[in-house]
Amino acid sequence: MTLHLTDVTLTYPDGDARLTALDHVTLDVPRGTLTAVVGPSGSGKSSLLAVAATLITPDSGTVTIDGTTVTDLSRNDQAALRRRSIGIVFQQPNLLPALTAAEQLQVMAVIDGRSPAAARRRAVDLLDAVGMAAQADRRPHQLSGGQRQRVNIARAIMNAPTVLLIDEPTSALDHERGATIIDLIAQLTHQQATATILVTHDRTHLTAADQITEVRDGRLLATTPVAR
C-alpha cells in the first residue's frame, strides 16, 4: 500500500470539551487507484485529507507513505516530504496572477532544486497531458475556470508525487466541466501511478473512482470497490 491511515483519531478544542473530527479511521489507498471520499458537510472529509497531507498531526494513529510513518517525522521533514511526495489540489486553484500556466508548474520544480530547463520541459509535458499545451504561456486571467483547475492539477503532479490529495475540485464548475475534470484526475492517477484521494460532495462523478469511502461524524462507515 502506498498510503495507509491506521486508527487515526483527531480532535479539536470545543469550549471546555473536544470535538472529534476523525474517530479511529483506517484507510488503504493503493498506488495507481482513486479513492473517492464522500459524506455530509462537517463529517470529517477535509480533516481526513489534512491528516493524510501531514498538514495536521492526529491525536493518535499513524499515516504511512511508501513504508515511512510520516506522523513520526519532524515538521521540517514532513514539509520536505510534502514537497517531494504529496501533491495537493485545493478547492480553488490559487494560481499566481503574474505567472503563466507553465511558470505555475516550473516554480514548483525550481523550489525543489531542479534546473530551470528541466523544469520547463516537465511543465510543458504535463500541460500537454492535461490538454493545456496551447495555453502554456497564458496567465490565469486569460483562462476559464476549468482551464485554471487543469493547471492546478498539473501543478500538483509536477514533482511526480506518490500521493495526490484533491479537495472538491469541481465545486466552482458546471456539471459537464466537472465531469471532465474528474475523468482527467482518474486518468492521471492511473498514468502517474499515484495513490489519490478525492473529496467530493457530488456523487454523480463517483463512477470514475476505484473505491468509495463514506465518512459520517468522523467515522469511516464503509469502503466499497466500484463495479466496472
Helix-strand pattern: EEEHEEHEHHHEHEEE
| CATH level 1 name of the domain at 3-94 and 160-225 | Alpha Beta
Intertermini distance: 22 Å
Second CATH tier, the architecture of the domain at 3-94 and 160-225: 3-Layer(aba) Sandwich
Indicate the mean pLDDT: 91
Tell me the fraction of residues in β-strands, as a range.
25-35%
Task: Please give the number of β-strands.
Answer: 10
User: What would CATH call the homologous superfamily of the domain at 3-94 and 160-225?
Assistant: P-loop containing nucleotide triphosphate hydrolases
3D shape: globular
Task: Look up the CATH topology of the domain at 3-94 and 160-225.
Answer: Rossmann fold
- Major beta-sheet overview: 6 strands, mixed
Strand order of the largest sheet: 6-7-8-3-9-10
State the helicity in percent bands: 25-40%
> In terms of per-residue confidence, which ranges show pLDDT below 50 for 5 or more consecutive residues?
none
The assigned structural class equals: alpha/beta
Number of alpha- plus pi-helical segments: 6
Please compute the radius of gyration using only Cα atoms.
17 Å
Please, what is the oligomeric state?
Answer: single chain
Protein name: ABC transporter ATP-binding protein
GO molecular function: ATP binding; ATP hydrolysis activity; transmembrane transporter activity
Domain ABC transporter: 3-226
Organism: Dactylosporangium sucinum
